User: Which sequence fits this backbone?
């Protein structure tokens, strides 16, 4: 009988351990995982509907994409961890992604896109913002800073350029370093003209052969180094706003900028930027690190980060290093007493 009582007591003890604390005791509440809701919409920016998507908590960080003519989608999911400490506002620039297209492509200018960014800031009542621009988005971010610096807390310029003349020199060197067969193939297609070839549905974009040669073979070593995107497809890069691209970049190929971006010569204006500025670039970047070094020299107090084993897509090649650099820039550790 005593053995049965003892066994029963042990069983009760085991059940109390498995089921939970004894009566009168309280269990520590489980931590609830953070949830980050996405909000999206359109801002009517002087008659052009600009798409935006927001996620996260904290001070606003507006993010503008490259191309020109791409969309915010290529930032995802890589930049999402920044939403833990900042409210991220992604924009599709006019004519790109989900934003309204223009009937007249001459409206696709850096200056007009600056006003679109300002309209989004004002409509969403963001107050002062941090602004991050990648590639062409970095050109746009510089132009915004020249006009609306009073509305900035931080400026982040990623894999970008300040001078089309110097960027064209970089593109020329990339072409010179190609294997002779590839360079001759690209030159031949550019000489023949890159548009109005193939089926009717193909005539307003690069040919598939040129996309594969220029983006798949020529650019690829300058896009990725450490972590090449296994889903990268040069033909898929053609899903973009071609009317915008031709107006801004030009119609004569990937290795010369001769659209309206040819007017971008910001070297003499960079010294006017006084807000905290972070400049980042990959060591194998399409936008050569020499451009970032020059920008760093001209922007007083700026920080320069060159990511190792990284191409143009630095946040894909070195995601941890990229996020750490941005986090430390936006949220520097308080000095120890």
Assistant:
């Amino acid at each position: 009988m005593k053995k049965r009582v003892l066994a029963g007591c042990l069983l009760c003890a085991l059940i109390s351990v498995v089921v939970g604390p004894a009566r009168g005791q309280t269990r520590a509440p489980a931590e609830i995982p953070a949830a980050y809701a996405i909000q999206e919409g359109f801002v009517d920016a002087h008659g052009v509907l600009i798409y935006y998507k927001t996620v996260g908590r904290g001070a606003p960080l507006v993010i503008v994409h490259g191309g020109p003519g791409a969309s915010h989608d290529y930032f995802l999911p890589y930049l999402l961890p920044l939403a833990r400490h900042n409210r991220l506002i992604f924009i599709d620039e006019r004519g790109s992604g989900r934003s309204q297209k223009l009937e007249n492509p001459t409206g696709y200018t850096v200056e007009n896109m600056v006003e679109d960014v300002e309209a989004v800031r004002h409509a969403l009542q963001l107050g002062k913002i941090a602004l991050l621009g990648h590639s062409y988005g970095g050109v746009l971010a510089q132009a915004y800073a020249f006009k609306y610096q009073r509305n900035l807390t931080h400026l982040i310029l990623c894999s970008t350029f300040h001078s089309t003349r110097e960027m064209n020199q970089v593109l020329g060197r990339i072409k010179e370093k190609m294997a002779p067969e590839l360079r001759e193939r690209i030159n031949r297609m550019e000489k023949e003209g890159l548009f109005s070839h193939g089926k009717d549905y193909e005539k307003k974009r690069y040919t598939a052969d040129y996309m594969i040669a220029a983006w798949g073979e020529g650019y690829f070593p300058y896009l990725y180094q450490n972590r090449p995107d296994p889903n990268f497809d040069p033909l898929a890069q053609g899903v973009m706003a071609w009317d915008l691209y031709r107006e801004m970049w030009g119609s004569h190929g990937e290795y010369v900028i001769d659209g309206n971006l040819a007017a971008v010569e910001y070297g003499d204006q960079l010294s006017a930027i006084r807000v905290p500025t972070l400049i980042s670039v990959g060591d194998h970047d399409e936008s050569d690190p020499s451009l970032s070094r020059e920008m760093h020299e001209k922007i007083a107090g700026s920080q320069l980060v060159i990511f190792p084993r990284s191409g143009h897509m630095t946040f894909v090649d070195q995601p941890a290093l990229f996020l750490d650099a941005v986090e430390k820039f936006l949220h520097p550790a308080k000095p120890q007493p």
Notes: DSSP finds ten helices and eight strands in the chain.
